[in-house]
Design goal:
By secondary structure, this protein is α/β, with parallel strands linked by helices.
């Protein structure tokens, strides 16, 4: 079966149940499963009319909106391959992705009109499509024209492509990850098994749909839950939306979680509706877990993966985070994943030993788009090499240390930046931090850190270094701490270690 079939089954079972609720300053409305299914089918027919060939690419360049969600579902229903085009990325990056994947159709919102360059493809206007100057046609008009029609169902296999998603480029030039129907179906199964979503779950789309939030949509739809659409998200707006819309489920990266905790209104909003406050995209600092759990209704959970093996490869349930010794863990392998720790010679290591985290199973990508050599370097004997250093304890809990290339070798000792960040982040004046190595004539590399301070901070560099030294040995303590107003971040808010390292290399 196709991943989209989970949505259509729900629409047949619960036609009158709200599939989507929109609550913005300009719009308040609900869309039933039946109404949404009808619109998805009509738009899918339109996509097949524009380009009848199966397995061709459809790019979507949009912020979170109903039209974005509609176009996303229709792309799947039409048998097309989804290519997310994050409008937070630079124009050159979007143009590179478009040139490589050659989508026959690009769905875009009017406020993304100039996010990408000139193309010869069919441009389909989504949100405010009639005002999109470059649009070839308007989404809502095509839905009206094709009302009542259903798309052609093309022959398919589990290894046919559902999406080409591009990596964030933290380890080099971004690569196009080929995710198949098998990967999507395995992700849905793993999400439902790990989190136990129910029909009364209300998922707030706070993270970008082009990023981690999309992974939550089909599992929520599969059980008859509701997607909640808000206006442009900010930490304060997300808190208000959880309260106002009684959200039960949300996915955010750690950075957003940290910023929410810094909000003055954090103690004034009602967050008791939360059942799943899911952190993903990067590891969360252990010191934050214990502090944040009671604030977020003891509903904090985390999932770990990569674009190459979607984020539900490893999962930490809220009940497991009740034990403080698990604060530094990302959880245990989910039902569709096999996990191991491997040394440089390719040997699997026993519990408690550091090595590279490797993953196998149905969540693993098909490969990198048009990059067979990179694929062969990443998937070896069925194991996907993550590039992350970590260990598995004798209970099966995974502890991620760092990216292999980020390990700082100072005076012959290996220092894992995550270990230092976990301690530095405990200082009450530190809002967020990143640790990296810089060349050093004496030590080979020296441990450095860059920090964003909290609003009420009064600590200086010396005080922060002394704090770390009091809790770690002197080898691991930073030799320099660079205080910054704004740490370099990705378009989805993730702190970029490499960019911070470059920024402070000559300071």
């Amino acid at each position: 079966m196709l991943p989209i079939d989970n949505f259509f089954r729900a629409a047949a079972r619960w036609p009158d149940r709200p599939a989507v609720e929109i609550s913005t300053e300009k719009e308040q409305r609900k869309i039933s499963y039946q109404d949404l299914a009808n619109q998805v089918n009509a738009l899918a027919v339109a996509l097949q009319t524009i380009d009848p060939a199966p397995q061709t690419c459809v790019g979507i360049c949009a912020y979170n909106s109903f039209e974005h969600l509609l176009g996303w579902l229709a792309t799947f229903a039409a048998g097309k391959v989804w290519v997310p085009l994050n409008p937070r990325n630079g124009r050159s990056e979007l143009d590179r992705i478009i040139d490589l994947t050659a989508p026959s159709i690009i769905i875009f919102d009017a406020d993304c009109d100039e996010k990408f360059g000139l193309v010869s493809t069919h441009l389909l206007g989504g949100k405010d499509g009639k005002t999109a100057q470059r649009a070839t046609s308007d989404m809502m008009e095509l839905i009206t024209v094709n009302k009542g029609k259903v798309p052609v169902r093309y022959p398919n296999t589990a290894d046919d492509l559902q999406a080409i998603k591009f990596t964030g480029g933290s380890s080099g030039i971004p690569k196009g990850v080929m995710q198949t129907y098998r990967v999507f179906n395995s992700c849905i199964t793993s999400m439902l098994a790990a989190f136990g979503f129910e029909s009364n779950d209300r998922h707030l789309l706070a993270a970008p749909m082009t990023h981690g939030a999309n992974t939550m949509i089909l599992p929520i739809f599969a059980v008859g839950g509701t997607q909640l659409l808000m206006g442009q998200p900010s930490p304060a707006a997300i808190l208000d939306a959880i309260d106002r819309m009684r959200a039960t489920t949300i996915f955010v990266p750690p950075t957003v979680c940290y910023m929410m905790l810094e909000e003055d209104r954090i103690n004034d909003v009602n967050l008791t509706s939360l059942r799943h406050f899911i952190i993903g995209g990067a590891t969360i600092r252990p010191d934050v877990v214990g502090r944040a759990m009671p604030i977020f209704n003891h509903a904090m959970e985390t999932c770990f993966g990569q674009t190459e093996v979607p984020q539900i490869a490893i999962c930490m349930r809220a009940k497991d985070w009740q034990d403080p010794k698990n604060y530094a863990s990302t959880g245990r392998a989910t039902c569709m994943t096999k996990i191991g720790i491997m040394d440089e010679a390719g040997n699997l290591l026993p519990p408690g030993h550091d090595g590279e985290i490797v993953l196998a199973g149905d969540l693993v990508m098909k490969g990198y788009y048009k990059m067979p050599d990179q694929t062969a370097k990443t998937i070896i004997d069925g194991w996907l090499h993550t590039g992350d250093v970590g260990l598995i304890d004798d209970r099966g809990f995974v502890f991620v240390k760092d990216r292999i290339r980020d390990v700082v070798i100072t005076g012959g000792f290996n220092v894992y930046p995550n270990d230092v960040e976990a301690v530095l982040g405990q200082h009450p004046d530190v809002s967020e931090c990143v640790v990296f190595g810089l060349p050093d004539d004496k030590w080979g590399e020296s441990v450095n850190a860059a920090v964003e301070l909290s609003k009420t901070a009064d600590s200086d560099e010396a005080a922060l270094i002394a704090f770390v030294k009091s809790r770690l040995d002197s080898v691991k303590a930073p030799k320099r701490i660079h205080i910054s107003n704004h740490l370099p971040r990705s378009p989805v808010g993730k702190v970029l270690r490499r960019e911070a390292k470059i920024k402070y290399a000559n300071s």
